[in-house]
Amino acid sequence: MKSLYAVLFIGLIVFYFVDIAFHVDSFSLEMITHNLVRFFSGFAILGIWVWYEQKLEIKIALYIILVFLVSDDIFDYIRNIDNFSFEMIIHDLLMLVWGALAGFFFMRRLE
């Protein structure tokens, strides 16, 4: 359980500094939704299905995540929300990796 708490705590610290560096307001409803979608897609798809249970290949999982996240960005574009930049790609990648690590350590803890 200590490893799960460590991943969550270190992830929060890194997340805070990335938000400050890129001037991202993570407490708006739009960004909370984006962060939750990216975190839990990394948590479930990468962390649990790929790394822990090894039921999916990494290539197929990355295609699933890519389709899922691009469709979310297209939906934002239709609603006239333009947040597609290099900084947001780094931010989204951080959320995916943090979710994947948290999902892997969460499943290891359930054993």
From TrEMBL:
<feature type="transmembrane region" description="Helical">
    <location>
        <begin position="6"/>
        <end position="24"/>
    </location>
</feature>
<protein>
    <recommendedName>
        <fullName>VanZ-like domain-containing protein</fullName>
    </recommendedName>
</protein>
<feature type="transmembrane region" description="Helical">
    <location>
        <begin position="89"/>
        <end position="107"/>
    </location>
</feature>
<keyword id="KW-1133">Transmembrane helix</keyword>
<feature type="transmembrane region" description="Helical">
    <location>
        <begin position="58"/>
        <end position="77"/>
    </location>
</feature>
<feature type="transmembrane region" description="Helical">
    <location>
        <begin position="36"/>
        <end position="52"/>
    </location>
</feature>
<keyword id="KW-0472">Membrane</keyword>
<keyword id="KW-0812">Transmembrane</keyword>
